[in-house]
Amino acid sequence: MRRAQSLTTTLGLLALAACGGASKPAPVEPGPPVDAPVDDAGDDDPPEDEDLEIVSTVGKFDPDEATAKFAPHVPALNACYTDQLARRRWLGGTVELTWVVAQDGTLEHVRMSRSDLGAWPIEQCLLQVAQGVAFGKPHGHGKAEVTFPVTFAGGSVALAWDEDQGLRAVGGKAKDLAACAKAAGGDPANVTITIYVGTRGKVQSVGFAAPTPIAPAWADCAAGKIGAWMLTDPRGKVAKLAYLYHPVATDDDDDSED
Fold first, then answer.
1. CA 223 – CA 205 distance, rounded (Å)
2. Of 46, 52, 228, 236, which residue is 20 to 30 A from 208 by alpha carbon distance?
3. What DSSP designation does 24 have?
């Protein structure tokens, strides 16, 4: 089965640091969107038939139309960040919001497909704002995906820990998150967990992203448990790490090995 066509564009949000907190971020004009090709892997070639009419089973959006629908929501997305930034000037990163829109224009879901922001309250706010973006009916004969990356730059940069440092810091603590599956009705897979660690190894902030929607109940539960962790002390700095929770092979992984 063919996948929904994906439309990707970039809209940056730059947060400028100021005394006593962050000033209002200035939105950056979106760059030219790129229409992603449809993955036809596994499709059988249709038989040659002069009377055969081939109809695409995917939809798509015009890049300019999608950007015009998205742009009015930029101030609200900006506010999600600035209203909760407080003194955490080290907090920043890029999120990718992905909408799946049915052929009739209704929103099937919106998800945080990627994020290294590491702040679940802000990410949750961004998702709530994103629910209100109406792209209309896709062109074509099927559902369509729209992805907008949005960047928030903090006033200072946290110390980045590499994958090995992150794995050592988390250790076996990730098993605590299995208890959150009951509250959420299941355990999400391939969740990228971004964590900020401060004085004495105390977790300062945590956020989530995954290729499929994450149940808010799971994220609330996981944020609470991770917030109680004591990790490696970054010794006077704020460190940032990423940890992949519940890794599961996907069709995309299989395709990349062919």
1. 8
2. 236
3. P
| CA atoms 230, 233, 234, 238: torsion sign | positive
Q: How far apart are CA 107 and CA 135, in angstroms?
A: 9
Between the alpha carbon of residue 173 and those of residues 21, 90, 176, 239, 243, the distances in Å are: 33, 24, 6, 18, 11
pLDDT band at 258 (very low <50, low <70, confident <90, very high): low
Q: Write down the pLDDT at residue 184.
A: 78
pLDDT in tens, 220-246: 999 999 999 999 999 999 999 999 999
Give me 135's structure tokens.
């792209």
Write the CA distances from 244 to 43, 67, 147, 153, 185, integer angstroms. 31, 31, 22, 23, 20
DSSP string, 32-91: --EEPPP--TTPPPPPP-TT-------EE--HHHHHHHHGGGHHHHHHHHHHHHTT-TT-
Determine the Cα–Cα distance for residues 130 and 73; give it in Å rounded to an integer: 8
Number of Cβ atoms within 10 Å of the Cβ of 218: 22
DSSP element (H, E) containing 206: strand 203-209
Cα 209 from Cα 114, distance rounded (Å): 5
